[in-house]
Amino acid sequence: MFKQFFAVSLMSLQTLPQRIGASSVIVVGIAGVVAVLVSVLALGAGFRHTLADSGRADRVIILRGGSDAELNSNLTRTDVDTIDSAAGLAKDAAGKALLSTELVTVVNIPKIDTGTDANVTLRGVGLKLSEVRPELKIVSGRMFRPAVRELIAGVGAARQFRGLNVGSVLHLRNADWTVTGTFTSNGDVHESELLADVDTVGSSIERTGYSSAVALLTDPGEFTAFKDALTTDPRLKVDVQREPEYYAAQSKQLTKVINIVGNTVAVIMAIGAMFGALNSMFSAVAARGMEIATLRAIGFGAWPVLLSVVLEALVLSLLGGLIGASLAWVFFNGHSVSTLGGAFAQVVFQLTVTRQLIVTGIIWACVIGLFGGLFPAVRAARLPVAEALRIA
Amino acid sequence: MKYLPLIWATLWRKKTRTIFTLLSIVIAFLLFGVLETVDYAFSHPSGGVSGADKLITINKYSITLALPFSDTQQIRSVPGVAEVTWITWFGGYYQEPKNFVFALPIDTDTYFNLHKDEFIVSDAEMQAFRNTRTGALVNVALMKTFGWKVGDKVPLHSTIWTQKSNGSLEWSFDIVGTFDAKDPTQASQQASSLLFHYEMFEEGRSFGKGSVGWFEDRVSDPSQSLEVAQRIDALFANSSNETKTQPAKDFTMAFIKQLGDIGFILRAILGAVFFTLLFLTGNTMMQSVRERIPELAVLKTLGFSDGKVLLLVIAESLLLCVTAAVIGLALSYGALPIIKRGLQGVELLPSALLPGFAVAVILALIVGAPPALRAMRLNIVDALADKH
């Protein structure tokens, strides 16, 4: 039986080039489905990566209780002093806690591609910035100085929004701010932001408090003790979260929407492509009617014939799947886009065609091919031999 | 028209093939219909403070920065401004963050004067609202969502505003009445709205007093709205709170654009769908003509001109594509309520489906042309002798 299967399959695959027209319908149809599926899901994967890569397990973010996001939150200086002295925080050589008080606001800056205003995060950061966020690296220009209106721009923000090159001047609220440098930050969400000295930002927007405090723990295991100490302190009303959890929550909603849209569109397209595959395989079977009947007449079984037709459909759809996934990869992998993130501000991210997405695409291709090949295969196997021979 | 039975018969010559081809075109147009209405909805925002006579004034540098309440009088005195109202973002939810409530503190007189003809509120309930300091008017859809009744006391959590009295983020409101959108196309836009008194909010909050989130302005002459917007912004130029005033539609549009280039994504998907489809249907048509070459030769022998044979094949392609398009677009029309549920606040209009018919005709012409030309050029003698 296996010998027969190999013989028939080899024969059908060898004659494939003669049926190039009909066969290409399967390849092109499935390539289309997989390209769309992988590209749309790559949007979701890229967004999730950017937010998931934000933060470390031993770094915590402290917000006013019930605020959900930094933009809504407000901590007073007294709050910060209390937090600063809590046990479990990492200290520098001088014994000061590694804590950055931050003040977040959004500023209107036009997007380069559309020219329309977008909400870009301007984050005021404390003096301990470089110790609290060691992943932050200046890639051009220099760091901002405190007490003067200078800021540094994330490389993602500089790519998407107008006028963020080193040396440019931003007019914000009656004052000119100079962009003194651009920075990378492990590809995380902060690369979409502008950073400046927290007190300078505060005086500019007339706010005395802070939005959040970001601090390093001596050890990730200290988290529960640290959190309990702060949340049970009667002087404070705060939420304490590990940074990765805080940012993961922000990507949940959009990733969900993208996945639903991507999968729905792909399912509908897949049904269409399956009809195309059915058509091609039926005509392939019809074209090979004579050949199949002859094989059956000289003693080949029904199963090898059936399997060979399915195999042909699978080979074609696999080819289609590979082409589709490659197209998505070539055109969109690394493509930089931005959207409004969970925190009401723009998040710049890159479409990421992951290995897992390629595998998903190829699985979809094979499922479409399997269904598209099955019915024609059954017809081929059932072909009444005598009749098929007589027609010719 | 008299050839319709002939075209119909040739179309169904191979039933399975035609059905499969038809179904894949149906699917393509189903997608076309759905994506096109979504694209249309995003590029033509409606609802909320729509209307050509509405302007929105925000802080020039950031929508999250407040403006002084004292600007109200100055804006009101700008020639061409008929009414001004002020609002602040409350950031409310009910019980859990996922139960978002579009709760807005409003100044009753100016707000309803500015938005007159937009809400249906009974006189009695409006009176009750005016008389109740902690009162709230709630959209009928929102009432249903949470199972609220008029007379209920409901707590809302604000993610921003703490109360002066106890530092709490929990605010409580008495539902005194309901409202509905007068214009049904705005119904989905208002579906999670709750309106309450600005006065109570202003007195109750622990910080931010004397500031407002944004102003909404109505101009007396819509054709002058851009000039009026410039006049308003000129008032506050070089102050520490410069403003940016724009038509409400532009404001919404800019916000949608912040989500990303949705139109590009949808068009790219549709491009992939139709390219695939072109390939598939074109192939089927080619194959069908190839199989019928002897028949076409017979037609020509009977006296059908070359042009007529060409038209017959084109007509067949048209019949297939347009039939499928009608079915596909009808299905997407049927799917509109489902999408509407997924995309709250977006209005979907059936008229966005109309370009689909044009697309069907173009598709039919493109896939029908090569086989039709082939059929036209057939040489009777060669075709009958099977030497084509």
Q: Tags for this entry?
A:
heterodimer; A: 392 residues; ten-stranded mixed β-sheet; two-stranded antiparallel ribbon; 12 strands; B: 388 residues; alpha+beta; six-stranded mixed β-barrel
Structural overview:
The complex is a heterodimer of chains A (392) and B (388). Chain A is an alpha+beta fold and 392 residues long. Chain A is 51% helix and 19% strand. Chain A has twelve helices and twelve strands. Chain A has helices at 2-14, 20-52, 77-84, 129-132, 155-160, 198-204, 223-232, 243-287, 289-297, 302-332, 355-382, 385-391; strands spanning 59-64, 99-110, 117-125, 137-141, 150-154, 169-172, 175-184, 194-197, 212-216, 238-242, 336-340, 346-350. Chain A is elongated and about 95 Å long. The relative contact order of chain A is 0.21. In chain B, helix 2 crosses helix 12, helix 10 (262-291) packs parallel to helix 13 (355-377) and helix 12 (306-342) packs antiparallel against helix 13 (355-377). In chain B, a hairpin with a 6-residue loop joins strand 4 and strand 5 (100-106). Helices cover 52% and strands 17% of the residues of chain B. Chain B is of the alpha+beta class and 388 residues long. Chain B folds into two domains: 4-45 and 261-387, no CATH class; 54-257, no CATH class. At the A-B interface, helix 2, strand 2, strand 3, helix 8 and strand 11 of A face helix 2, helix 9 and helix 10 of B.
